[in-house]
Amino acid sequence: MYGYQANYTDLDKPKDENAINTEMVHLGSRVKIFDEDYDEVEEYQILGESQANPDEGIISDQSAVGKALMGHKVGDKVDVHLPNGSTISFKVLEISK
Known about the structure:
mainly beta; 5-stranded mixed beta sheet; 5 strands
């Protein structure tokens, strides 16, 4: 209509990786968490839905875990309410770009 076709995968990417705040989990953050239920450390990058690939550690900001982690800081305990009704708990260990 306006002569421009949006590339939706570009909309899922942070515009400037240097602008990603590492004090709080945001879109584009890499997050290291401790899974309290399985007593293990996991690492994820949070991106948009079109880039999500859980097998490679990339989760969507719209997934249950992604949504729950957004806005949290290192040291925070995060309870994730899963679609099946169960709850899992994580502790945020590290946030990076």
